[in-house]
Amino acid sequence: MPTVFPADSVGLVTPQTAHFSEPLALVCGRSLADYQLVYETYGTLNATASNAVLICHALSGHHHAAGYHSVDERKPGWWDSCIGPGKPINTNKFFVVSLNNLGGCNGSTGPSSLNPATGKVYGADFPVMTVEDWVHSQARLADLLGVQQWAAVIGGSLGGMQALQWSISYPERIRHCLCIASAPKLSAQNIAFNEVARQAILTDPEFHGGHFQEQGVIPKRGLMLARMVGHITYLSDDAMGEKFGRELKTDKLNYDFHSVEFQVESYLRYQGEEFSGRFDANTYLLMTKALDYYDPAAAHGGDLAKTLSAAKADFCLMSFTTDWRFSPARSREIVDALLAAKKNVCYLEIDAPQGHDAFLMPIPRYLQGFSAYMNRIEV
Fold first, then answer.
1. Which catalytic residues are annotated (predicted)?
2. Which residues pair with 55 in a beta bridge?
3. At how many degrees (to 10) do helices 281-293 and 158-169 cross?
4. What is the pLDDT of residues 237-264, one digit of tens each?
C-alpha cells in the first residue's frame, strides 16, 4: 500500500463516535436508554450546512465507506469507487457522512456491546431493529452534526430502503433520495433465503441461544453457511460462470464429499471463513430481520403511492439487469408509485453482468449516470 494515496481518494480517515443519552423508542416496543454510533466524514461541511450527504449501508456494511484507516490498509472503504474527489459523490462538493447502524458490530451499539443494565454483553437480549429505527437514530446524528436537511440520502440494497424511508419519515429533511438496487419490500423468495441463513446460525451448536460470547465461542459453522448462501444470491449466474466456470482446484476429481475440488467451492468457503471471523452472528440475524420487516406501504393498505405522497424529495432509482435478488422490476415498482404520487423521479437501468453486487463496483455506465445525477444537486 503506497503512502501517497490516489488523487481521487479521500486519503486517511479516522472514525468518530457519537454518544446519545436520550432514550430511543423502537418499533418493537422496547427502547435503548443510551447508545453510540460510529461514523466517518469525508469533505467539508459548508457554512450553510446545505451540502451534507448521508450514506446508508447494506446488510454487512459499516461506517468505513471510503479512504484508508492507515497507510498499510490493503483495501479502501467499501464504496471508495463512488466517494472521493471527482467521483459520483464528489467530496470537493459534498460533506459525506457514513455510519455503522445500531445493532451493527463495527463500533455502534449492538448485540456485542455491553448491556449497562446487566454489565454483560447484550447477545440475544439486544432489541430487534427496523429500518425506521435506524432512520430515527440517523436523524439524531444529523442534529448532532448541525445538518437540518440532507442534500441527499443514498444507499444500495438495504441502504436504499433506509434512503426511501428518510423521504417518508422526514420529508422536510431530505432534498434528494437515491435508492440503488433496492426494493419497496422483500419478496417471499428473499425472505426465504434470509430464513435459511438464519437457521444455519440458530441451529449451530455453538450459538447457545445467542449468548455464545459468554461461552467464549462463536457459531462459526452457522455464520459460514449463512454467508455462503447470501453470497450466491449476490452474484448472477453469468458472473459466477465467468469467474469460476467448472474450473477444478485440484488436478483430478477425488470422488468424495469432503474435498474442495471446484474453484467455486473454494471461493465460497473462503468467503464464509473470512466473514465468520469479522461479523457477529446476532447482528446478522438482526440485519436480515430488518430486511424482512420493511414494508412502508403496509401502513396504507399496501398502497405505496399513498405512502410516498407526503415525500418532498426528488428521487433517483438505479437497478442492474442481472440482479435477481433485487431485480429491476422491484425498482420500477418504486418508480411507478412515485409517478402516481406526482413526484420527480429519474430511473436508470444499467446493463451489467455482475448481479446484485454491481452497485458496489466501478461500472462505467453506472458511474456516469450516478455522477450526472449528483452533479445536478444544488448546494
1. 157, 323, 356
2. 98, 154
3. 50
4. 887 777 777 777 777 787 877 777 788 7
Cell of residue 112, nine digits: 456485542
Asked if residues 94 and 50 have their Cβ atoms less than 8 Å apart, the reply is no
Q: Which residues are annotated as a binding site for substrate?
A: 227, 357
In SS3 terms, the chain reads as CCCCCCCCCCCECCCEEEEECCCEECCCCCEECCEEEEEEEECCCCCCCCCEEEEECCCCCCCCCCCECCCCCCCCCCCCCCEECCCCEECCCCEEEEECCCCCCCCCCCCCCEECCCCEECHHHCCCCCHHHHHHHHHHHHHHHCCCCECEEEEECHHHHHHHHHHHHCHHHECEEEEECCCCCCCHHHHHHHHHHHHHHHCCCCCHHHCHHHHCCCCHHHHHHHHHHHHHHHCCHHHHHHHCCCCECCCCCCCCCCCCCEHHHHHHHHHHHHHHCCCCHHHHHHHHHHHHHCCHHHHHCCCHHHHCCCCCCEEEEEEECCCCCCCHHHHHHHHHHHHHCCCCEEEEEECCCCHHHHHHCCCHHHHHHHHHHHHHCCC
pLDDT of 261: 75
Report the DSSP beta bridge partners of residue 350.
320
Please identify every residue annotated as catalytic: 157, 323, 356
